[in-house]
User: What shape does this take?
Amino acid sequence: MLIVCADEARVEVELVGGLLGCPSCRGMLRPWGHGVERVLRCGLGDRLLRPRRARCRGCEGTHVLLPDMAFSRRRDEVSVIGAAIEAKVAGAGHRPIAGRLGVHADTVRGWLRRFAERAGRIRAHFTRWAVALDPELGAVLPAGGGIADALEAIAVAARAWVLRFGPGDPWQIACLLSGGALLCNTSSLFPAVR
Ligand SMILES: [Zn+2]
Assistant: This one.
């Protein structure tokens, strides 16, 4: 799986132009049909995703090009999930958060539980990214433990990304920098910082 920009036309141009690298071997990806259609629940209504598939010329592996609006195996847009995490860090419980976002309470509880389980790894991963993107960056200070520190590291990395590459949604940047795996199970690895 490879996370790409949500702009389908731009992704298509890059794919056809041979500008996308294989996440396994860095070989050139070529178009290879489409992945399974799915509905992404977005803040502004549902959106049908028809992710592009690509095949590597080097290792011949196939990859689904997931837009940076979606985390792997999650049905809700990254900004909706991100809003839930921010509300939790601000002190809200999963039920009020679910009510505000119009998402089932069990779904929100699942996101928050997974984020909390992975908080240490998330913090370490995004701190490495922040430093890689901005070598001038000072220490990333503790924000109050566990999930607050993980969220702070994401915010710092997203700011470093924006300073370097221009405006972007922080949760889409978080999706990109985690290879879509922010809320995957603890055994799945984030892509290495290059
Ligand atoms: Zn490859």
The CA atoms of residues 42 and 77 lie 5 Å apart.
